[in-house]
Hints:
The protein is α+β, with helices and mostly antiparallel strands. Helix content is 17%, strand content 38%.
Amino acid sequence: MRINRYCLLIVVSVIVCQLMSCSCEKKKAKTPDFEPWEAPEVVDTIVDMPRKDVSDTIRISDAVYRFHFIMHKIDSLPTVKSFSGLEFHDNGVELTVRSDSSKLFHKEFTKKSFKSLVPEKDYKKMTLTDFNYFNAKRDDRSKFHFLATISDPEDTDGYGYHIDVQISKSGDVHLEKAKEEDITTMPMDYSEEEDV
Length: 196
């Protein structure tokens, strides 16, 4: 008798499985022939701008100076949502100018350093995207010129605000909008530059 109960249990299980399978097939036949819409994956990433580390020498009024700057993300600064909606870390630039072994100037610049020169409507959507020695101003022997760029981090057309960062030999800083005719689109190539 025990074997019959066991066989009966197996037969009943097989029948129940087949019934369930048939009911699922009937439901499948009623569904339309298109894929259901799936929500896109939400990207919750903050993009880092590239790090930049540059050192070079320049000659001003018969004296040789060495400058060094590091452009890097600063986690403590608020993130910036670009015009397209991507979120970016903002950058800072740590600039040092030396004459021989003495430090003439040292300061960290952030986007906030240039706030007075960027319209409020653009300021919130832009980051400090570039910093370079201002090669177009190299003939001015009275001070050092660097070019800071505040722009949309995704913009490849060059729309943004270019700031002439002027540092006197006594270490004073003056900021002004760079003249359009002085701005070059190509960064200075440090590998072939000769001291002036």
